[in-house]
Amino acid sequence: MIPRSIFISLPRPRPSSTARFPSTQLFRRAMSQKSLFQSIKEDHEEMYEYHDQYERARARGDTDAQTRWVRQLTWEIARHAVGEELVVYPLMEKHLGATGVQLADHDRAEHQQVKERLYALEGLAPGSPAHHAALAEIMRALHHHNDDEEIKDLPLLERAIGQDASRDAALSFKKTKKLVPTRAHPSIPNKPPAETLLGLLEAPIDKIKDWFATFPEEEEMKGAKEELKTRDHDAAAGRAAENRL
User: Fold this and answer.
1) By C-alpha distance, which of 81, 82, 101, 83 is closest to 92?
2) How would you class 65 by CB atoms within 10 Å of its CB: exposed for 0-12, middle for 13-18, buried for 19 or more?
3) How far apart are the C-alpha atoms of 126 and 67, rounded to whole Å?
4) Which of 1, 48, 91, 98 has the greatest count of CB atoms below 10 A from its CB?
5) How many C-beta atoms surround the C-beta of residue 30 within 10 A?
6) What would the pLDDT profile of 70-102 be if each residue is shown by its tens digit?
7) Is the pLDDT score of 14 beyond 60?
């Protein structure tokens, strides 16, 4: 399955009937009702869902399905990370003072580690023990990072900027994700304006690669989207469980 355009990233990198996608006006109206916290958390839930789908494929020995779900997971993580670095972290630095700068620097450092691991993952064979171990380490790091954002970073930011600005930031975040790279590029700076410029240069190349990559089939994605309707990871409970280890 391939994306319609190598320059504009749709909700999924695959062709489909135009009837499946809402008009720009409806999209803006729906997004305007979501807070930044809700938009970020939705992305986190998608990461966990795609990884769960990978684990099921591994349990049944389906290497092709593992490859598809890892590509979908990578696609989501890469776009999410750059979207945060261009939209969310500058807001933290602007509105949370020295604390915001410290939190943003910490989050960027964790993103960099994930990008480096994702980049290395592309050189490993799906289905191999080394590939599985590397992916497991990525997901452990992501859970810790995502929980930090949901427990501390985003609540602090939303209290500082208010509901209207939060909804505006959510829309900006979603729009930004359409224009950024879909693969990990650990060598690109992780702050604007350099990240903005270099990301725009890399994004079309990534989208060309996506033309030839294998993503989940439509029925597979339909099942995942149904499960996403009821997913609700409890970040506080996850952090408590992590602390008990």
Assistant:
1) 101
2) buried
3) 6
4) 91
5) 11
6) 999 999 999 999 999 999 999 999 999 999 999
7) no
| DSSP line for 72-93 | HHHHHHHHHHHHIIIIIHHHHH
Q: How far apart are CA 36 and CA 19, in angstroms?
A: 27
Say how many C-beta atoms besides its own lie within 10 A of residue 52's C-beta: 14
Can you tell me the distance from the alpha carbon of 69 to that of 50, in angstroms, rounded to the nearest whole number? 6
What count of residues does the chain have?
245
- Model-level pTM? 0.82
Q: How far apart are CA 229 and CA 207, in angstroms?
A: 28
Burial class (CB in 10 A: 0-12, 13-18, 19+), 119: middle
Contacts with 122 (C-beta within 8 Å, 6 or more apart), sequence order: 74, 183, 184
If one counts every other C-beta atom within 10 angstroms of the C-beta of residue 72, the result is 27
pLDDT of residue 236: 78
